[in-house]
Amino acid sequence: MPKEGQQDIKPDTLIMVRDLCKSFGSNHVLQGLNLEVNRGEDIVVIGGSGTGKSVLIKCIIGLLKPDRGTIYIDGEEITYYNEAKLNEIRKKFGMLFQFGALFDSMPVWENVGFGLKQHTNLKDDEIRDIVAEKLAMVGLKGVEYLMPSELSGGMKKRVSLARAIAMEPEILLYDEPTTGLDPIMADVINELIIQLREKLRVTSIAITHDMKSAYKIGDRIAMLYKGKIIEVGTPDEIKNSKNEIVQQFIQGKSEGPITRGE
Amino acid sequence: MVKFFDFLGSLVIRFIEESGRIMLLFIKTLMWIFRPPLNLKNIVRQMEEVGVNSIPVVLIMSIFTGMVLALQSYTAFRRFNAEAFIGTVVALSMVRELGPVLSGLMVSGRVGAAMAAELGTMQVTEQIDALYALATNPIKFLIVPRFLAALFVMPVLVILADIIGIIGGYLVSVILLGTNSTIYIKRTWDYMELEDIYTGLLKACIFGIIIATISCYQGFSTRGGAEGVGKATTRAVVLSSLIILISNYFIAALMF
Predict the structure, then answer these.
(1) DSSP class of residue A25?
(2) Per the domain annotation, does B10 fall within a domain?
(3) Which of A13, A141, B32, B112 is the most exposed place for a label (fewest CB within 10 A)?
(4) Residue B27 domain-assigned?
(5) How far is A257 from chain B (nearest CA, A)?
(6) Please, are residues A22 and A186 in contact by the beta-carbon 8 Å criterion?
């Protein structure tokens, strides 16, 4: 049965989120959020801490079940899929977690090759070759046999990024890719994200509150505020936005409508 | 008064909710066991962790338990000239009760805590989310190997505990207290039935299931950083120990 709204997905749209609501107890995090992501673009969702940016991407990849609303991936509604069907959808995704979320009982190569080991019949040697190639893409060499605890923060993020791209996903999700890194390492990660988009032609959603990163990696920027996307536009459009909330956030002012609680 | 009932009610509701969730996890785990492929490497690693690494504590626990049993029953039995039955008492108590229960408690303290802490840390550092994101079911990948390892390894540990406990009892009563060695061994064998051994081993399997299910549940439901991991670990040990002791009575009553 075609659901309402499915007809008007444009062929360019890879991900469409409609009227998404999610609450945790009395905390209504997402309140009717709408977002469309086009094939091959990098969209950056900005917003303050605790505004539900992580909740949004966790709903998209099916880690959280929304209370209401629909999510379409490639024209397919995945919102209420069961675990088995979700797992098929998840193979299209790669996700970079905020703190890397590397499996700390496994060395780097097993981390990066995890998806390949689980979902393909490749032999360990073949996996190791692919792992080395993916690690090279994120600028790492000779770390295959280190444990995650032996890596620095920036290296962890890069290994995690290598793990996210190991299965050659169509969609990459970045949860605060530059948070907690020094400015130089943050820029390295930004460059990597841009390179990956060009090399792998992936569509990606990044959530961040690092404006420098948002301007650099975003084809479009969407501002999340009070559970809704209040403005979407190219970095230039966002910079010149007339919306006071957007202006306060991107300029990082302590005075403004956000802090006044409007 | 109303407040008291309010409190009591919420306690009961929480208890039922929690039991329901644990049962659900248990059922899901059972379902995932039968879905191929079985990750043998992981199972063997967990068996080593649960079994091999628990051997020293279980050995020390069982030899001293056997020894103290012999010592105490000697004191009592001497009063009515029944020293000859020390072997029987030590063997039956070890095999039917103390072997499985004490091993269960030791393993829940050692292994249950480790499972809850490891899975809890994975939960708060988003490693479990990462498994989902890599299209891998965490129950299949993390809980099933731990569950199977505990289920198969517990009976082996208990057999070991039984044997060592009986040897401990023998050492104390024959070498230390000078009772007759032949009689000790004969009385140990004569009064032991197969049923005694397999009820003990059945208990061991059930305790293994309890430890793995509760500890993994606590690990998976960890919230809120290092403090949450600490709490989950404590709850895993306390809850699995209590349930081991409670279910122990009911299993014994059913098998009576």
Answers:
(1) T
(2) no
(3) A141
(4) no
(5) 31
(6) no
